[in-house]
Amino acid sequence: MPRGLKSKLRAREKRRQAREEPSGLVEAQAAALEEEESASSPSAHFKDVPQSSPTTGTPSSLQVSARVRSATMTAAGVSNTRFNEGATNQREERANAVQAQDALEHWPKGPIDKKVAMLVHYLLYKYQMKEPVTKADMLRNVIQMYKNHFYEILRKASDHLELVFGLDVKEVDPNRNTYVLVNKLELSYDSKLSDDREVPKTGLLMTVLGVIFTKGNRATEEQVWEVLNMMGLYAGRNNFIYGEPRKLITKDLVQENYLEYRQVPDSDPPRYEFLWGPRAHAETSKMKVLEFVAKIHDTVPTAFPTWYEEALRDEEERARARAAARARTAAIASARSKAIASSFSGPK
After folding, report:
1. Residue 171 region, left (φ>0) first, then alpha (ψ -120 to 50), else beta?
2. Contact between residue 130 and residue 190 where contact means Cβ atoms under 8 Å apart
3. SS3 190
4. pLDDT for res 255
5. Which residue of 20, 202, 236, 273 is most buried, as measured by CB atoms within 10 A?
6. Lowest pLDDT segment from 50-59, 68-77, 254-263
7. What is the torsional sign of CA 121, 125, 130, 134?
8. Spatial separation of the C-alpha atoms in residues 2 and 244, rounded to whole Å
9. Which among 1, 59, 118 is positioned nearest to 309, based on CA atoms?
10. Which pLDDT band holds residue 123 (cuts at 50, 70, 90)?
């Protein structure tokens, strides 16, 4: 190809990219992912959980899933770009760089994997901007020549967003192939707990709630930290995505009423435990948390019969409570209506 024609084609491509701001953002994030190898420590999740013990019917302890480690490493490049504007000092930056290098040591870097990481970046950007995204947007701005792999890339990116950040990718308009990201909580706590520069932390919250649920609805601090440490999260050590984890789970989430953190009764020396807080009961359920745990294993909630039966009982109790609340509301409305009618039809 003549040199002059090559230059014109390059210039035309640069102009096209400049017109597509979101695409430019995604390319910059991908470059940051490759050049700086920025990634978070692996996310907490569960591995090799049997359905139940043959003698007690009680599931064994939870372990870290290699599948979720891969998801976290793929998704984590966002932490050093648009969604978290960096460490507050040079020491923290150096610590983050060490975390990044360790996390990406075994990260697959094939072309499909890179597109998955780029799509995670792009969808998180759209979530932050509170904008829907269409299939055409994703093809044009991210996937490009790999359009034959669109559904594979979208599925993998959706898995990463769910397991790491606690976000579900929902198709809201099948005719136009329009998608939005929805927080797993019925009411997103991130709008209050975090500012707009940070990625959602719902994934970590769902993980802790899962530990509590599978430990008999209360988990000791040691049990929770066993899982968090397997994630690569340690008290006092800042993490790309989740910040300082001890502050997050013992203060921030407690103040937001998602967790209860209290001393174990009669413990000497004092020991502490976690329970679900009132907002966790209001905004999620045992069934949803079990679905999250099952997703980690690429299975279904019925694969864990002990937990599934408990989650079903919880669903039934919730349904009865909702029915009772509706009945009370209807009775109050009916009584008010009769009172108003009576006031207008007084003695003649």
Report:
1. beta
2. no
3. helix
4. 94
5. 202
6. 50-59
7. negative
8. 56
9. 59
10. very high
What is the arithmetic mean of pLDDT over 78-88? 41
* DSSP-assigned letters across all residues of 89-134: SHHHHHHHHHHHHHHTTT---SHHHHHHHHHHHHHHHHHHTT--EE
Does residue 80 contact residue 88 with C-beta atoms inside 8 Å? no
Q: Which two tokens stand for residue 217?
A: 């609805």
144 token code pair: 């490009």
The tens digit of pLDDT for each residue in 225-238 reads 988 887 778 898 88
How many angstroms separate the Cα of 14 from the Cα of each of 18, 20, 33, 142? 6, 10, 21, 15
Instruction: Please name which of 167, 80, 68, 151 lies closest in space to residue 116, comparing C-alpha atoms.
Output: 151
The whole-angstrom distance between residue 129's C-alpha and the CA centroid of its chain comes to: 17
Residue 248 scores a pLDDT above 90: yes
Residue 131 contacts residue 69 (beta carbons within 8 Å): no
180-217 confidence digits (pLDDT tens): 999 988 764 444 444 445 567 888 999 999 999 999 99
Label the pairing between strands 259-263 and 272-276: antiparallel
Residue 222 neighbours by CB distance under 10 Å: 10
- In angstroms, the CA 111 to CA 130 distance is 28
Please report which helix (H) or strand (E) contains residue 45, including its range: none
Nearest to 41 by CA among 209, 224, 194, 164: 164
CA dist., res. 112 & res. 346, Å (int): 77
Nearest residue to 32 via CA among 95, 72, 84, 67: 84
Residue 7 CB partners (closer than 8 Å, separation 6+): none
**164 contacts: CB under 8 Å, gap ≥ 6:** 43, 68, 71, 72, 75, 76, 203, 241
H or E segment to which residue 178 belongs: strand 178-183
Contact between 39 and 99 under an 8 Å Cβ cutoff? The reply is yes
